[in-house]
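Field: COMPLEX_INPUT
Field: COMPONENT_COUNT = two
Field: RESIDUE_TOTAL = 455
Field: MODE = joint
Values follow.
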Amino acid sequence: MITIIDYGMGNLGSIRNMIKKLGYHSEITSDPEVIAQAKKLILPGVGKFDRAMGNLAHLNLINIIQNKAVEGTPMLGICLGMQLLADSSEEGTLKGLGIIPGEVKRFIVPKELKVPHMGWNLVHYRKDSPLFANFEDLGEARFYFVHTYKYLCQNQDQILATTNYGGDFTCALQKGNIMGVQFHPEKSHFFGMNLLKNFIEKI
Amino acid sequence: MLRVRIIPVLLLRNQGLVKTVKFDKAKYIGDPINAVKLFNDKGVDELAFMDIDASKEGKKPDFELIEKFASECFMPLAYGGGISTIRDVKRLFAIGVEKVIINTVSLSNLALVSEAADIFGDQSIVVAIDVKKNIWGKPQVYSHAKKKPDISDVVEYAKAAERAGAGELILTSVDHDGMMNGYDLSTISKVSEAIKIPLVACGGAGNLEHLKEAHSAGATALAAGSLFVYHGPLKGVLINFPSSEKMASLFG
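Field: COMPLEX_OUTPUT
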């Protein structure tokens, strides 16, 4: 059972459906007790940093998520859900979950590039990462991105993958069983499906 | 390098999918949710749905249906048809649509485009321009919903939409729609020279070479209907999409 945390930030239907297509069960919940018992967590999210942290606080989920991270429950943050793992974000004033050391900063790109970074882009991943296992057969790994801010990961060895957009930035990171991806696996068909499969089966 | 985007465009009528010829003769081709599933399996990078009756009949988008196929869609989804207020736009994003396509309402008022781009970011706001040549062969803005456009000159209208804050334009040729005889290359090149934002060309694709021609004429991305829903000279309904390798070799 995969537990998808619902804290009012975006449509979670395609994540649930992709997991279903992979042959696994998932539940979408904001119930602290259910989340505290979860075996595997997904923290999704689309929207603004402070609103997300505010919603998590309002639902009494911040401590529970932090405890689950300490316990080592596998957790995958997606897009804003990854950024919430940081200590802080330039987008807001509230503190992040502080699970993977780093801060979130706005993109600064050359004039000819637009922000947000939106569209399919190539992802260069560490070959030894279980999250990116079996990607060789799919050709060049590409994923769908939509974001204005990027994660500056403090520890280089926690970076799993990078993408180039006016310079390389971290698009996947991992600390123990806690990981985050900046792109949207649920909107990246084969590539996203393979990544979610790895998260479910290999982490 | 970012890939050239190829976008199947699917037309909705009464909760079913149809395909038109010159914006007319709508033929039923199947169920939208089934089509989304088939395009998922083919690894399409982006999909667009347009409800061809909503604005014409003064109806809102069918949010319930859209949510159903948005949840089944493992790729970015664009939706157009019946969008006339910021509330509509907001609701579409909330149910999992990545881009909204605005057409009829912007013909007489680009304010919704500006407001939506301000709130949601211009990358998610697409203005659709339908084009029909007049008897002198001059491309004119066409309204399927029979609204009189404020600006009838296609290039002027494209520039106005860009100024208003559209992040992208989708230019559809009424004369080429469903004909499968190639895109309206001259209009594509005129419009692409006049704007800086991405231009999606639509209408007329009958084979992969046509996609390449439109790209060379200045289109940033290529959309097609018939090409991806019909197969063979008798136009049997068959959802199809070229492989990633085929695409890569086509655009080099």
